[in-house]
Structure formats: C-alpha cells, structure tokens
Amino acid sequence: MKAKLEKLNEIGAEISDLSYAAAVLGWDQQVNMPPMGAEGRGNQLAALERLIHLKLTTPELGELLEDLIAETRDLDPDSDDVRMLKVSKRNYDQAVKVPPEFTAKVAKVTAMAFGAWHSARQENNFAKFQPYLQQIVELNQQFAGFFAPYDHVYDPLLDRFEPGMKTADVKAIFDALRPQQVELLQTIADAPQVDNSFLFLHYDEHKQWDFGVDVITHYGYDWMRGRQDKAPHPFTTNFGVNDVRITTRVDPDFLNPALFGTLHECGHALYELGVSPAYDRNALAGGASLAIHESQSRMYENLVGRSLPFWEFFYPRLQATFPQQLGNVDLHTFYKGINQVKPSLIRVEADEATYNLHIMLRMEVEIALMEGKLAVKDLPEVWNQKMQEYLGVTPHSDADGVLQDVHWAGGMIGYFSTYALGNLISVQLWQKILTEIPDLYDHIRAGKFESLLDWLGSNIHIHGKKFEPQELVQRVTGSKIDSAPYMQYLKDKFGQIYGI
Q1: What residue segments make up the domains of the chain, in order of their start?
Q2: CA atoms of 460 and 138, how far apart (whole Å)
Q3: Any idea which fold 167-498 has?
Q4: 340 backbone dihedrals φ, ψ, rounded to 5°
Q5: Would you call the peptide bond into 149 cis, given omega within 30 degrees of 0 as the criterion?
Q6: Whether 411 contacts 136, CB under 8 Å
Q7: Catalytic residue among 162, 265, 272, 352
Q8: Digit-coded pLDDT (tens) for 330-374
Q9: Which helix (DSSP H) or strand (DSSP E) does residue 244 occupy?
C-alpha cells in the first residue's frame, strides 16, 4: 500500500504543478498581460488544461484509486490518507465524464472572454461581451449534460464550487432568508439615514494602498509568501502553500473599494496560507469550498473590518493619513458611515444588509440561463428589472449592471451563491469564536489579531479540503449552514446603528 500511496502522491503532485502553472498564466492575464495577448494566452491555457485533464483521467489513476480505497477500508475514516483518497476519487469520477477537448475549449473561450468583458465594461458595451457569454452559457449547459441525470441542470455547476450542495438546498436557505432581509431593509428605510458623504472625497491612491497594506500586515498576511497587485476585479490566487497572491483596485474618489476589497482578499489569502503544508501538491490542498472561503473573506472584511473595535484602533491612523478628508469626522460618525444601509448598484460595494439580495438575483438569473428560459441577449433588460425588483434601484449603464462582475467571463456559473452562504457561515463561526475567545474584541481594539488567526488556523484553515463544507461547519459549530445567526447579527448591528 505504501508504494501505491507514493505513486498516487507523485501523480497528484504533477497535476498540482501543472494547475499552478495555469494559475500563474491566469494571474498574469488579469494583472500584467497586454490586451492583444488574449488569443495567445487562450491557446496556452487550453494546452495546459487539456494536459491536466488527460493526466487526471488515465486508467492507471482510476485503477490505483480503486486499489487504495479497497486497501484502506479498515483505516480511520478521518485520517489524511483516507480523506485524500476520497477527494481524489471524487475529482477523478467527475473528470472522466468530461472530454479533454471540452476542457481545452473552455480554457480558450474564457481567456478570450476576459479581455472582451474588460473592454465591454470600460466601454459600457454589452454587445461586445455577448457572443462570448453566449458561448460560456452553452458550454455550461453542455458541462451539466455530462452529469445527467440530475435533479436540476444547475446542480453540476453548483457542485464544482460547493461540493455536496444541491440547488434545492440553496434555494431553501435563500427562501427563508429573503423575506427577513427585506423586512429589515424596510425597517431601516423608515429610520433616519446615516451620513457617509465623507467617503466620496478625493483620497490619494498611494496612501489608500499603503493603509490597506498596513491593516493586512496586522491581520497576519505574510509578505514573504504573498504580494498584492492591481486588477480590474480583485481576486486571490495561489501557486502553492508559499505563494498566495491578492489583488485590489483603487478608486481615488471613493474610500471603500480598495480598503474593504483588500481586507476581503486578505481573508481568502490567510485561509490558503494556513492550509497544512503536508497537503501541498495533493488533493487536500486549498479551501474546503468557495462558501467556506467566502466565510473567511467576509469575516475579515465585515465582522472584523466594519466593526467598531477595529476602528477604535485603526481610525486614528486613517485620520492621520487623510486629515483633510476625515479630520473633522469623529469615530462614531465614520463607523456609521461605512455601515450605511442603502440599496446600491455594485455588489462588491454593497452593505451587509443588502449584499445577499445581489447574490439571490444573480443565482436566479443563472438558473434561468441554464434552463433556457432567459436568452443572453435579453440579459441587460432582465438584470435591470430584477435590480428594481430586489433592491429598488435601476442601473443607468450596463457597466454598473450586468457587466460589473468578472465571474461569467471566467466561466464560473454556479459560483455566486457561495458569497451569501459564506456570509451565513462567517457569523456561525464568529459566534463559536466568541465563546472560546471571549475577550476577542479587546484584542481587536489593541490591533492584535493573532488569537483570531490562530483559532481559524486550528479549526478551519489547516484542514484544507479534508472535510466537505457542511461537514466542516457542523464539526466546528455543531450545526449545518443556518441563516438564523446571520439575521440576528444584522438585526443587532443595524438596530444599534439606526436606533431601531
């Protein structure tokens, strides 16, 4: 058995190395590549993805997995080897259903689509992106077909990002959450609004950048194992346990995007940096799911970064950095301003009370696209209608509407629900953390985040993909994903801010 495990690890390491190489090309595409490089990059990524897929689907690997699973039946089911085999077998079973030529085509189409999306957004021209999105929708429909029969055409797409979750599961969670969030929003709307005009002044880009770097250095981001660059839509990527990179974008006339975007991406990076080194270059490397990943990013962005104790430490530093803009704005006015609840057009800038509605809208649109009930050409009109229905606002341009997110250009249909699920998980984890570190807010007031990172590292990060998301949440909190703690958190926080 030992020799077979060594062989499996050897194959897994090679697949991981090729995947990391593809990730480097993807990072460079969004950070450095000139616009005319899209076609060449598409060919390069297609070649790599095809090679990865071929290595992941060899009969030799399938036989090796079957042998090892049979030989490890008497081992501890939670041992690293058994769990690694389980994840590897799942990856293999999924991959063998998909032709390598299809994987290569997706890589090429999405590489071209990114450039088209970027310029379409800059030019506010959906028609420029439409043919690429049409291909991506059709490719996702084709991908789902490889996994038929299924309960719903959206299930195979969701499962790529959230293993074990079904469309019906997410719908049930959202159906319970939506009316409560709408009711809270109405209550807030009837209260006097808080002021946040001071956020929309001119803020020097370099100073914004440096302030964000200071915060995430306090968070524990390891600059010997990571770096930050600019990208049109912030993201985090990694090329191994010792190379985890983040990106941000800076708006010189709005403080929030760079600041909270940097905190968000740092949360993702801390997760990847905390995965057990023993899992590097094997199937257990990386986060358990996108929802667990988003629980970390949303925690560091919101539960920490938009909390009053956080700003009790950092606000004097921010005032000193921007004395002209913030010198006459007191701490509590600033705190309320960054937590203003107001329906808005842009998801990544949405407040905590409206954010999930953006996600529900996107999931509804994606399902309609996959079911064939919504044509890509009609997407801008339907998007605008649903923005009015969900949030009471209508985009004045497609750049602030249907073109605002990069995910569809990357072929990532089925991804968006993980943001809202991550919000729910973040609060469940936070409640557990506060029972075990009751003085955590005192640590945060002092600019100390080691105890938080240590807890997350020991309970979440170190496990990588060892446990499925619902299983991990249950093991840590005693409950599967539950919307009740999140709603209570929103009511408590905004009840205090708005006096309701």
Answers
A1: 2-131, 167-498
A2: 36
A3: Neurolysin; domain 3 (1.10.1370)
A4: -55, 135
A5: yes
A6: yes
A7: 265
A8: 999 999 999 999 999 999 999 999 999 999 999 999 999 999 999
A9: strand 244-248
